[in-house]
From TrEMBL:
This is Cytosine-specific methyltransferase. InterPro entries: C5-Methyltransferase (IPR050390), C5_DNA_meth_AS (IPR018117), C5_MeTfrase (IPR001525), SAM-dependent_MTases_sf (IPR029063). GO terms for biological process: DNA restriction-modification system; methylation; negative regulation of gene expression via chromosomal CpG island methylation. Keywords: Methyltransferase, Restriction system, S-adenosyl-L-methionine, Transferase. It is an enzyme of class 2 (transferase).
């Protein structure tokens, strides 16, 4: 491709576009452009198109690929739905979502892409299915570059979210010995570990400036206040919130107010230390999931205030910029936030991919020599 053209991206199972945000916003925006994005979530595609142009299509990928021509692209990114690989899914055997990597690989092949980035839950890399993915990639002429489980906190996200990243490169377009090592070097370190890198970013640094939320609905206000709304908890829920101390969780609720602790929690004396827990100001958040507005689902109480975190606070802890536009109902937006790839983490992956692609562009003659066996 010409050096003057942007690298063309296809984003599959794109959701709201957290992964695309890392490629096409901020410092990487001058280098990449979207040519296609697919997802079966209507609200998520509305959000994607509001941020990246009208390239998103609401569709079932298995049906779309049988009826449409895949556009040419340099890079295919995305994460086939992860629940089939996830430890959170108790019925993993036979989960049809495991097979969605197959149309993902079909689109890579038909697009003529040089690189693909597959993002997923950590369990992907140890699954039987991943061996099938590897074999399919190799049959298409791709080499996988040290698939790894990475902690987003190591890359500037205020959240200890672990994700599997598998990057594949078309072997005949690169010189193996000169490919930069994957994964990229971390930019931050665990605060308990010595080193020159700055410590993990904290909850305080990302949400500490926000006022108390107002109302219970999305508001027609400029960001960050548009998504900074609360809930309408019952009096019992408010009592439970107040019974959880700084850094506490459901066990503190049980200790301090057994009279208002759910009976099922009293019976369960082990596990679940994040349930009904408070975030810590001076640490990254736990993994933000799709129901972060329900403290019974995890450590989603505000560090000080007696309430769950807001949609804006969750979006910031995912590293979304305030000017990223979310569309849909409250529940739909929460799903978009919790299912996303943190954009700052995605930006680090995009920068690595850009290095690969610039190498391919800058050293095309050397690549051709090695392919034809004429290298000196």
């Amino acid at each position: 491709m010409s050096k003057t053209n942007k690298l063309k991206i296809i984003d599959l199972f794109c959701g709201a576009g957290g992964l695309s945000c890392g490629f096409m916003k901020g410092k990487n925006g001058a280098h990449f452009e979207s040519v296609l994005a697919l997802d079966n979530d209507k609200a998520a595609i509305r959000t994607y198109n509001a941020n990246f142009g009208e390239h998103g299509i609401v569709t079932n990928i298995e049906e779309w690929i049988t009826e449409n021509t895949v556009p040419e692209a340099d890079i295919v990114i995305g994460g086939p739905p992860c629940q089939g690989f996830s430890l959170l899914n108790k019925n993993r055997e036979g989960d049809h979502r495991r097979a969605l990597w197959e149309p993902y690989m079909d689109i890579i092949e038909r697009s003529g892409a040089s690189v693909f980035v597959m993002e997923n839950v950590p369990g992907l890399l140890t699954s039987d299915e991943f061996q099938d993915i590897r074999e399919r990639a190799e049959s298409m002429g791709f080499l996988l570059l040290n698939p790894s489980v990475l902690n987003t906190a190591d890359y500037g996200v205020p959240q200890t979210r672990k994700r599997a990243i598998a990057i594949g490169i078309k072997k005949d377009r690169f010189v193996r010995g000169d490919i930069p090592a994957f994964p990229p070097a971390p930019s931050h370190r665990h605060p308990d570990k010595a080193g020159d890198l700055p410590a993990w970013l904290t909850v305080r640094e990302f949400i500490g400036d926000l006022p108390e939320p107002v109302g219970t609905e999305v508001r027609d206000l400029p960001p960050p206040l548009d998504l900074h709304f609360g809930r309408n908890p019952t009096a019992l829920s408010q009592e439970r919130y107040r019974a959880v101390p700084v850094g506490g969780n459901r066990f503190d609720l049980q200790k301090n107010r057994p009279d208002i602790t759910p009976a099922c929690w009293i019976k369960k004396t082990s596990g679940g230390t994040d349930l009904f827990g408070r975030l810590w100001w001076e640490r990254p958040s736990v993994t933000i999931r799709t129901e972060f507005f329900k403290p019974e689902k995890g450590r989603y109480l505000h560090p000080e205030s007696h309430r769950p975190i807001t949609h804006r606070e969750a979006a910031r802890l995912m590293s979304f910029p305030d000017d990223f536009v979310f569309l849909g109902s409250k529940t739909e937006i929460a799903r978009q936030i919790g299912n996303a790839v943190p954009p700052v983490f995605a930006q680090k992956i995009a920068t690595y991919v850009l290095t690969l692609m610039e190498y391919q562009i800058q050293h095309g003659e050397k690549i051709e020599e090695e392919r034809t066996g004429n290298a000196a």
